[in-house]
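Co-fold these.
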Amino acid sequence: MERKAFKDRIIYQIYPLSFCDSNNDGYGDLKGIISKLDYLKNLGIGIIWLSPIYKSPLKDNGYDISDYYDINPLLGTMSDFDELLKEAEKRDIKIVMDLVINHTSDQHYWFQEALKDKNSKYRNYYYFKEGKGKKPPNNWNAAFSGSCWEKVPNEENMYYLHLFTKEQPDLNYHNEEVINEVKNILKFYLDKGVYGFRCDVINEIYKTSLDDGKFRFFSRGKEHYENQDGCFEVLTRLRKEALDHYDTFLVGETSSIVPDMGQKFIDTRALDTFFEFDHAFCASNKFIPIFKKKFKPKYLIKPIFKWQNAVSWIGAYLENHDQLRSVSRFGDEGKYYKESAKALGLFLLSLKGTIFIYQGEELGMLNYKDLTFEESDDCMAKSVVNTATHILPITKKFAFKLVNETVNRDHARAPMQWDDSINGGFNNGAKTWLKVNSDYKNINAKEELNDPDSTFNFYKKAIAFRNNNDCFKDGEFIPLKSNSNIAKFIRKTAEESYLCVINLSKKEIKDKDIDENKQIVLSTHKKHQKNILKPYEGLIYKL
Ligand code: GLC
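Predicted complex below.
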């Protein structure tokens, strides 16, 4: 059987608003993406995942869709998208879209009709429910804080459900018509030549009941909507009734997933793979995520190792549009900046599963140093700041400082840094929708392309190595015991095996396996010292 592309290729996530602004209006666009396809090809990318490009009022930057069959005019037109597909195909790059079907925008025609007319069939596309006395229908809370019920204007005691912001009403998957709508959306894009979908908050789409949830500070109510049997049924039906006619790929965003459930998504063919979040929250307090925890490499290594063998195929990543930059969180912004960027890259690119790289990660892009609350765009960061200042005796400035160090999604969404010209070459100087990170003069693609020792060129080398190596694509992953600052493992097939040793700390560490006489196939440093791993030094040996 032909190997599946998603098992062989590296996926690169593009956040379209921030990638490249071709018409200098301050927003990235599809033409900008087309102009950078050669850059991605040169890096060795085989699949692009586009964060949402559909029509949207951008209350949650496109994760609030008002028309699934149209493109956000800020990003371009449907014919620009067709052009992007064509140009990508010419370069043998596949396109994966974001599929946001847990909710629509409140500006979507379906929701507008549902609001206008109680008897409209679209009411049953969503969850409308009467409140309990003066209270909402149940005690669930929304992901970005507050209740997940919003009062319907001009109606007595009527509410609608939104697990995210109030501008993102949840769709009702008990309604056959909603499932049919999704099938049609899938077919529309698959017929255009799209390869697959990254399914947004997909393990929350099916609400088994609307009863009160058990007491919890966060995600109260989740036992009624997370990983429900109905979710597996809906996805398996979509697979059989729409997707199976195509060679396609689904990766799910599955919050608080555990291994059994993750494997069930794969076994039922509900999804091909999924993202886990254990490692994503490893640098913040478990109970109050806006409190930072002093990072130790083992916090990152342990969950990643766990998931490598917990399920048959994982979506491996360090960054995405919802996370802080990995070098800022897990690496070193100071003396060992470049070494740590490469060590993290080597770790990621040596793992089993489908590897996802987020735009700018290949350049070692960092968090903002000087973003203010007023300059911030992220609806979640703002809402968390507001809630925190309500429930804790802290100022807005201090709340934002905490949020900025832990959960603010703006850091990853800063415009891409292409060169050292105005606005980092993201555009020709027009005010950008989110400010450009002030470090663009030092960290940018042009500079790194020209420097053989850059993070970009290291990623390029490591990607080329993986692209040509079946052992790294799907060989076994064998974790080895070592100093807790080191990620040490073997990748192995019947034919060959490799030893990977990566120091994820600032310390020099003794390791008896470090030997310049062994065959090194990839390394972060040029020179090596017997039995010693330098700070953030990583090597792969052929055994
Ligand atoms: C996912 C997206 C995030 C969005 C949320 C609601 O978590 O990654 O950006 O805000 O879903 O759609």
